[in-house]
From TrEMBL:
Pfam families: SUFBD_core
GO biological process terms on file: iron-sulfur cluster assembly
Protein name: Fe-S cluster assembly protein SufD
InterPro entries linked: Fe-S_cluster_assembly_SufBD, SUF_FeS_clus_asmbl_SufBD_core, SUF_FeS_clus_asmbl_SufBD_sf, SUF_FeS_clus_asmbl_SufD
Polar residues: bias regions: 9-26
Similarity-based family: Belongs to the iron-sulfur cluster assembly SufBD family.
NCBIfam families, A to Z: sufD
Species name: Cryobacterium frigoriphilum
Annotated ranges, domain SUF system FeS cluster assembly SufBD core: 153-376
Source superkingdom: Bacteria
Annotated region described as Disordered, given as residue ranges: 1-35
SUPFAM superfamilies: Stabilizer of iron transporter SufD (SSF101960)
Length: 418
């Protein structure tokens, strides 16, 4: 018969004894729950894979999906996608090539990797990638339009490459019907200057899930603009890695949610090189029952990013009852040697003083409210840098405002801001 060894004991102040543990308290995982589970500690540590089978089924409880209506697009996260080539239109521009390339193209996978199942599903399925390649130091602009994607579940992959010292504006114009999951890779060579504008003016029933991955080289500058106006569910998530010393990025967002629309943006900026700079400004308006917007802004200043200068902000203007705006800025800093870093978030209704000022000069209340909304959103539009597109977007905003019979004098927004 074996005999268990006697436990060491420790005297207590009252004279009794307690068993003495042979390991440090708290150094052993609990027996209940997920044994040994350690949560992700920083934004860059999230699991990544290009294989959809590596991700669990989407439940809506995941950090990346908890604010999204996941039940409305299970065909994009769990179903089979059509990865075939689709119709596009663009006018020829000197210094820009637009081609379809094979999955074996060396550029694929160099800007980023999916962190969620919808993106991985698209990555696993696309047959050819649409490659837009920019060269030459002269400024140029090209618009690539997609308007015939149909209503079937579809996958896509886009590459936008700016060669060293090149400069251009690339506009991705989205119209018509769609049920689309896609990945867009943006690659900036040394000292290049690239503006990428993604315009979502889908039909009312469209669903669009897209992840933009950007890698910005030494002394290069990326201006990335997201404009979401049309569609039922539109989720555009830009991730920018400032990979080269002296790299710079300006991320702008403009959105206008009507009744029943869900417009979402999850922005991530990773300062991974010294003396890099980033500015993030997203502004949106909401009107109509169940209009919903989501903005999550993550900035990570890595331990190699000495001399970083970073600031992000989100502003939402609520125009009617029954809307909801979620605004969540996050900032992680892993080095103390920075120029500056900060974030801000605000959601509210009209500024009564602005309205009073305009009405005191003979402007009707309804027109005053429209002027305030246009002024609120114009800050973003005027920074795009394409006069023709800026004018067209101003007209689109005016049409959105006129689609409502009136703008109420006071609202109480449902707000989630942290």
């Amino acid at each position: 018969m074996s005999v268990a060894p006697a436990l060491k004991t420790t005297p207590t102040p009252g004279g009794s004894t307690l068993p003495e543990s042979t390991t440090q308290h708290g150094n052993k995982a609990h027996t209940d729950g997920r044994f040994g589970y350690v949560p992700v500690q920083t934004r860059s540590d999230r699991f990544k894979s290009v294989n959809v089978a590596d991700f669990d089924a989407v439940t809506g409880r995941e950090a990346v999906w908890k604010l999204s209506p996941v039940a409305k697009f299970t065909d994009l996260t769990a179903g089979e996608l059509d990865g075939a080539v689709y119709p596009i239109s663009s006018e020829p521009v000197d210094g820009v090539t637009v081609d379809w390339v094979d999955r074996t193209d060396a550029r694929i996978g160099t800007a980023g990797t999916p962190e969620e199942r919808a993106a991985a599903n698209a990555w696993s399925t696309f047959e050819k990638a649409l490659a837009i390649t920019v060269s030459g130091e002269e400024a140029k602009e090209i618009t690539v339009t997609r308007a015939e994607l149909g209503t079937g579940a579809r996958a896509a992959h886009v590459i936008i490459e700016a060669k060293p010292f090149s400069q251009a504006t690339v506009i991705l114009q989205n119209n018509g019907d769609a049920r689309l999951s896609e990945n867009v890779e943006i690659i900036l060579g040394e000292s290049s200057n690239l503006t990428v504008v993604s315009v979502q003016e889908w039909n009312s029933g469209a669903v669009h899930l897209t992840n933009h991955f950007a890698s910005v080289g030494k002394d290069a500058r990326l201006k990335h603009v997201v404009v979401s106006l049309g569609g039922s569910i539109v989720r555009v998530n830009p991730s920018v890695r400032l990979a080269g010393s002296g790299s710079d990025t300006l991320l702008l967002g403009l959105y206008f949610a009507d009744a029943g629309q869900h417009l979402e943006q999850q922005v991530y900026v990773f300062h991974d090189a010294p003396h890099s700079r980033s500015r993030v400004t997203y502004k949106g308006a909401l009107q109509g029952q169940d209009a919903r917007t989501v903005w999550i802004g993550d900035v990570l200043i890595g331990n190699k990013a000495a001399g970083t200068d970073s600031y992000e902000q989100n502003r939402n203007l609520v125009l009617s009852e029954g809307t909801r705006a979620d605004s969540i800025p996050n900032l992680e800093i892993e080095t103390g040697d920075i120029v500056g870093a900060g974030h801000a978030s605000a959601t509210g209704r009209f500024d009564d003083e602005q309205l009073f000022y305009l009405q005191s000069r003979g402007i009707t209340e309804e027109e005053a409210r429209r002027l305030v909304v246009r002024g609120f959103l114009t800050e973003v539009i005027q920074q795009i840098g394409s006069p023709a597109l800026e004018t067209r977007l101003q007209d689109a905003i005016e049409a959105e405002l006129l689609s409502s019979d009136s703008l109420p004098a006071a609202v109480t927004p449902a707000v989630e801001a942290r």
